[in-house]
Amino acid sequence: MNKMMKTLCVTAVLAVMSSLASAKLPAPSDEAKAKAAEAAAKTAWAGKVDGYKLCLSQDKVVAHYKKVPAPKEAKAPAKGASAPAPAPGACVDPGPFVYTPAVAAPVAAASGVAPVAAVPAASALAPAQKP
To answer: Could you say which of 46, 47, 82, 95 has the lowest number of CB atoms within 10 Å?
Structure first.
């Protein structure tokens, strides 16, 4: 009897857990999607700012290293050895955070109308040239 009760309890718990696991969350609202997009853009911008600050600090360390005289124990590089390559570019400041939400795409998707591809004005008005 005790074993049967344990089996019944375990079965009930598993049934409840499986129903919770298969539950589907509702689709996020437009406001939630906009907030998520803005948060993603802000996170990407913060990563660029961190990279810029790291680049500046590395430049500062290199400048200090080049200013301080080398110790006498340091050996000169071999004749065939080349100097390390310089950085591919200078540090690029990402600027202030600016977020411009894309409004046209959600409106077209919500209305059920397929978006129309933009045709460049110059190609639409200019006649075809013969080779």
So the answer is: 82
